[in-house]
Amino acid sequence: MGLTTLAVIPARGGSKGIKNKNIRDVGGKPMLWYQVQNGLNSIADKVVVSTDSEEIKAIASQWVDVIDRPAEISGDKSKTEETLLHALQFYDADIVVILQPTNVLNKPEYVNECIEMVKNGYDSAGCFTEEVGFYAGNPKELLERPMRQDKEPCLRDTGNCWATKVSILKETNNRLGGNFGIVVVPKEDSYEIDSETDWRMIETLVGKEYYTSRKGNVSYEEEYWGVVEDADGVKRDRRLDAERDLFLSRHKEKIEYIRSLPVGKIIDVGCGRGFLFNALDGWESHGVDISHLATESASGNIVCGTLEEANYESDYFDVAVVSNVIEHVKDPVSLLKETRRILKPKGKLIVETPDFGSAVAQRFGGEYRMLHDKGHITLFNILGVHRMLIDLMFEVENLSYPYFELGLFNEENLMRLFDTAKVSPPMAGNILTFYCYKK
User: Fold this and answer.
1) Using CA atoms, how far apart are residues 354 and 373, in angstroms rounded to an integer?
2) What gap in Å lies between CA 207 and CA 408, rounded to an integer?
3) 7, β-bridge pairs
4) How many CB atoms lie within 10 A of CB 361?
5) What top-level class would CATH report for the domain 5-204?
6) Which of these, 47, 113, 324, 418, is most buried using a 10 Å CB contact count?
7) 3-class DSSP state for residue 121?
């Protein structure tokens, strides 16, 4: 039987640098989540969190076992080695691993390399990164200033991960006791969060999860703009003029909002057949859509293609409408960045999309009606959309849940809420409409 490995994530509740640091939001996740995932996706046999905080315990216990850390080893001057030895009272292991929550840029492969080094003969191993510079401790070099490429790099302990034989830890009381191995990690993966400046910098490096994705294969020609079947099994021919009347009735709120604004230049991203423009007088209207079938019947300044391909001038439009589009594209962030580029400063943005985290979505699961559309490949919830808009430098002025004015609130739809074996009914909260402006 091989050597067993226990990965310990020490997460104290107290922190002088940043309040509640170990569970502070980093890229949309509590900070310690990243090292939990690194541990779970590594070759470690067991991952645990050790904490003295009930708040941290409640969060961490969603993913892994939690050890209650005694107060006497949870102070500012307590050593991490004390936490490891305490954890080993509850779990047997041959190798113990430290995963610091502050190293959110760590990766499972670095954890695996440390563990493999110890399994293959080293007493311990840790992560280091190469740095080349001029240091006060070497005055001769400071004066001579050799060429950077001629200098030998120094190795800095990054804190990403340490692995130690339990026997060596107990003997030396040190995470890098005995003969230790070195895992060199790229500098971009070596940063840790110990200050507000660190947090702001690392926020820009981690990928924010605004949405989840699923596979879909839809043609936005006849399959989408011809005869379609909705979530309730009702067939509609989207080529008929009746579709225009349905569109205008379902989008009254947005239309009234646009009419309340000073007349100017407007773009409808994902304009389809251009129904929105039928309700607007005096506006310089532009539309873009990837469907040839839809745009050939639309009138006005219409481009068949992507927004990027249309290549509009920067700061050109007063209003941009991106209604029921971001759920259909693989990269909504790039789409909204381009939308922001072509909007004037203080230009208005309307974004509408289904809420795949709504109460009805959670109740009906796979029978949630918004999952019926195979073109819905990018699934947002309300927090994801809101955070994305803020990060892209839009100010959210209002959030609406269009429903009651659409004629969908009735006894039949209310009764359908009780049968989760069938497709969910149209219900308040299914659709989110954000009204924003460009900062």
Assistant:
1) 11
2) 38
3) 47, 97
4) 22
5) alpha beta
6) 47
7) coil
Taking the alpha carbons at both ends of the chain, their separation in whole angstroms is 61
CB of 129 closer than 8 Å to CB of 191: no
Distance CA 363, CA 427 (A): 12
- Alpha-carbon distance of 149 to 132, in angstroms, equals 9
Would you state the structure tokens that stand for residue 128, as one six-digit string? 């280091």
Residue 209 has a pLDDT of 74
Burial 251-278 (b: 16+ CB within 10 A, else e): bebbbebbeeeeeebbbbbbbbbbbbbb
- Encoded tokens for 16: 């002088």
Delimit the domains of the chain by residue range: 5-204, 212-438
Contact 59, 24 (CB under 8 A): no
Q: Using CB atoms within 10 A of its CB, is residue 370 exposed (0-12), middle (13-18) or buried (19+)? A: buried
pLDDT at 16: 64
Q: pLDDT digit string (tens) for 8-36?
A: 999 988 766 666 789 988 877 899 999 99
Q: Where are the alpha helices (DSSP H) in 195-289?
A: 196-205, 222-225, 242-250, 252-259
Handedness of CA 269, 274, 276, 278 (dihedral sign): positive
- Beta strand segments in 340-438, E: 343-354, 378-380, 394-400, 431-438
Task: Please give the CATH topology (third level) of the domain spanning 212-438.
Answer: Rossmann fold (3.40.50)
For the full predicted model, state whether its pTM sits above 0.70: no
Tell me the two tokens of residue 418. Answer: 């009780």
